Amino acid sequence: MQAEVVFAGFGGQGVMLAGKLLAETGMVLGKEVVWLPSYGPEMRGGTANCTVIVGDEPIASPIVRNPRDVAVMNRPSLDKFCPLMRPVGVAVVNKSLITVDPDRDDITVVNVPANQIAIEAGTGRAANMVMLGAYVGATDIVPFEALVEQVKHQFVKKAKLIPVNVKCLEEGYRLGQKKRA
Amino acid sequence: MAKVLMKGNEAIAEASIRAGGLYYFGYPITPQNEVAEYLSRRMPEVGGTFLQVESEVAVSNMLYGAAGAGVRCWTTSSSPGISLMMEALSYIAAAELPCVIVNIMRTGPGLGGILPSQGDYRQAVKGGGHGDYRSIVYAPASLQEAVELMPLAFDRADRYRTPVLVLGDGMIGQMMEPVEFREHEFPPLPPKDWATDGCKGRKPNVVNSLYLDPVKEEELNRKLVAKYEEIARKEMKSDEYGTDKPYRVLLVAYGTTARICRTAIARLAEEGIGVALFRPITLFPFPAARLKELSRPAEFLLSVEMSTGQMVEDIELAVRCRKPVHFYGRQGGLVPTPEEVVDEVKRLLAGAKGGAA
Amino acid sequence: MKTIFKRPEALADFPTHYCPGCTHGITHRLIAEALDELGLRERAVGIAPVGCSVLAFNYFNFDFQQAAHGRAPALATGIKRGRPDLIAFAYQGDGDLASIGMAEIIHAANRGEKFTVIFINNAIYGMTGGQMAPTTMPGQVTTTSPFGRNVEDVGYPFRMCELLASLRTPAFIERVAVHRPKYIVKARKAIVKAFRYQAENRCFGFVECLSTCPTNWGMTPHKALDWLEENMLPYYPLRNFKDPETDENPEPAQGGGDAS
Ligand SMILES: Cc1ncc(C[n+]2csc(CCOP(=O)(O)OP(=O)(O)O)c2C)c(N)n1
Ligand code: SF4
């Protein structure tokens, strides 16, 4: 099994961190992982994205033209990455900032108002965690508990941020799971 | 030690520190800035030296000085910066000094762009600086391999008293993969009794590349050639994939491009088309003998590169032009995709048949 | 109707890629205004450096060359020696000019090349993501000086105007700032003067513009303006260092070399 997911959004929305946390969780579980960022001038204030690959076999190409899944936090990212998805993939869409729907009927769409949920949980900055939780909820690509552990580990030096981030993960996860049922 | 998820640039920095590369001089350039940023924090912890200096010209001449004084020194840069290091590289080779230079290649020529490329193959493999010299060139395809090659690079630099280049591309520098830092053991190295480290109890040493006497200069040239021949005998490294099954096509690729080829090979296998991969790990010395052997069952070879085909001539030389060598590549930071490689293999196979009919 | 504000002809109608609050744009405008005022646009050749302003050729409405990192003064020398009738100027950042390009700038100034240099001192490497520059302030944290610039280890920031003013060759050298309107007015005058001297074939011109880089300083644009005022102005005094009009024979001949 190999899954590829592109996390994409504006610079500063935390898509790089969300991807890194997923890759780390996979690594801790003994899976093969790669995290590949977009880099370059477009990063400055523009869009940012990273591709995470999680698999059971050593990962050959770190570049994927057609990812299985995407988690998009803004409109330009949806427009760019949803058309590239392979059929049957999962698209997690941040409904707080994206008003349209992906123009496809061969994928599973998970709508999450990520910014709203994060603001209600205590900080809009944790919207990336809602997205990450929803993605794992919809795919079970890694066990949820392992992801939570990784997030706690990430914020070990800023312990007071743990509850809000975990809360956001959970809310997202719940929405993702619902789509699975 | 447990695996850690690290960016390639940071993994290279950490691996070098662990290999005793405690003297680093550098100048910022994308996409390798994380090396210096990591070392600026880490070197003070391990008692090493990190210095950001005025230019790559200065960096490489600092390597000359530090290596001449007998310490393990290294640097990293990216294509335009590497070009500026060519002056000292030639002097370093001539004065037979050990050092390691990592090139996280970006696109060119000229200022180019900062996306991944393999456009500096010729510069690294054929010389780059002036005069009759070579450098050992390693090309890692994964971060784990990069982490393994750094200690080897430092060891071989010292063992042969030669500059060693490590060629990665922007992807190697920027991506994250799990890495594990293992202990490496090498046979003892000869003492650096040639270094200018104080003449107490011995005759003065001179580190030099000036030879006005043609006889002496020729002697140096011949000595260097003998060294490169020894390196070619002992240091070739390569990897292969799918060569244990029947194959009609042999792909040749190095670094990250080789990984893209592996995905393409798996796809082609699903369609019943047998394709194998030969991956040079040392670009100099080029692993020609093994490549020649592996080329036998293939109908043709296909070099896949992020350049305009700089490696093709080495492949043709290795197979003595007995097999057709084709090329597929992308440039400008566009990376060949597995799909493109699949299509190219099929196109060439169809063409080969057509041609025979 | 009277037009009170319009784009200078020398400035292209093209959105820049600079970060919000970056002062590169202000200086671009001053250059364009100066060239328009002196009627030099059609003879002008700009030289874009390697740095955030690498795309400057998109933002001006006249000829441009793009240089290798630090080499803009060499290109300008080539242009002026080849075609003295052209008006050449190098637009360079602090990494470009005071680090990798130190040799080129000093030698061009010393030869008294008749071109103009606009030197953007923002105390950091902008384009590559905030590394230490030769002009980074003592104690200033950057990505390669994570504990603050340690002057014991890497020395003090270069004062380029003072350095170049120590050369005997006549020149126009002035340091200005572009972070507040009152300073911008002075900056404009200095830039006009530097170009005028070039047009009159008088001397080398060098205008250092203290500038901000909110992105890599990690500050809001507003805070960055204050930071410049508080930290850079005391170390980098704003004044004229050399002007052929006021000091036609700047230094008396000193003994020794001048045996004539
Ligand atoms: C030979 C070479 N070395 C390094 C670089 C990478 N590089 C690009 S821009 C830059 C420095 C930019 O800083 P500065 O000149 O201060 O201008 P700013 O971006 O702050 O405007 C560097 C080091 C390069 N392009 N070429
Ligand atoms: S990085 Fe700094 S110098 Fe460059 S455009 Fe942004 S604010 Fe301006």
From TrEMBL, chain A:
Swiss-Prot/TrEMBL keywords: Oxidoreductase
Domain of life: Bacteria
Record domain Pyruvate/ketoisovalerate oxidoreductase catalytic: where: 11-173
Pfam families: POR
GO terms for MF: oxidoreductase activity, acting on the aldehyde or oxo group of donors, iron-sulfur protein as acceptor
Official protein name in the record: 2-oxoacid:ferredoxin oxidoreductase subunit gamma
TrEMBL record, chain B:
Protein name: 3-methyl-2-oxobutanoate dehydrogenase subunit VorB
CDD domains on file: TPP_PYR_PFOR_IOR-alpha_like
Superkingdom field: Bacteria
Transmembrane segments: none
Pyruvate:ferredoxin oxidoreductase core domain: residues covered: 249-341
PANTHER family registered for this protein in UniProt: SUBUNIT OF PYRUVATE:FLAVODOXIN OXIDOREDUCTASE, SUBUNIT OF PYRUVATE:FLAVODOXIN OXIDOREDUCTASE-RELATED
Keyword annotations: Oxidoreductase
Biological source species: candidate division WOR-3 bacterium
Pyruvate flavodoxin/ferredoxin oxidoreductase pyrimidine binding domain boundaries: 15-185
A GO term, aspect molecular function: oxidoreductase activity
Pfam families referenced in this protein's UniProt entry, alphabetically: PFOR_II, POR_N
From TrEMBL, chain C:
Annotated Pfam families: TPP_enzyme_C (PF02775)
GO molecular function: oxidoreductase activity, acting on the aldehyde or oxo group of donors, iron-sulfur protein as acceptor; thiamine pyrophosphate binding
Species classification: Bacteria, Bacteria division WOR-3
Gene Ontology biological process: cellular respiration
Domain Thiamine pyrophosphate enzyme TPP-binding stretches: 58-193
UniProt keyword Glycoprotein, yes or no: no
InterPro entries: 2-oxoacid:Fd_oxidoreductase, THDP-binding, TPP_enzyme_TPP-bd
Keyword field contains Secreted: no
Organism per entry: candidate division WOR-3 bacterium
UniProt-recorded name of the protein: 2-oxoglutarate oxidoreductase
Matching Gene3D superfamilies: 3.40.50.970
